Amino acid sequence: MTRLxxxxxxxxxxxxxxxxxxxxxxxxxxxxxxxxVEALEEAGVSRAxxxxxxxxxxxxxxxxxxxxxxxxxxxxEARELRDVIDARVAGIL
Length: 93
Hints:
Elements: E1 4-7, H1 11-20, E2 25-27, H2 34-42, E3 49-50, E4 58-61, H3 75-92
Parallel strand pairs: 1-2, 1-4, 2-3
Helix pairs in contact: 1-3, 2-3
């Protein structure tokens, strides 16, 4: 199975949600802000691995989703964003 590599502002959250769904996924880029980490942990989602791009990866650019940047979100906003990202990831799977 090909690994999904998420890039962009929501890469870490998308990869974690993808892994929770049983798909091999990782992210490239910065770690998520604290509120996003807390929202993921609250939902029982473990952090995904940070990785470099491999030739066999399918790259998903989360900046194309048109979602707000996660920096500076409060916990409630991070929860809402997590749910939207979860729906986007489900659409990929």
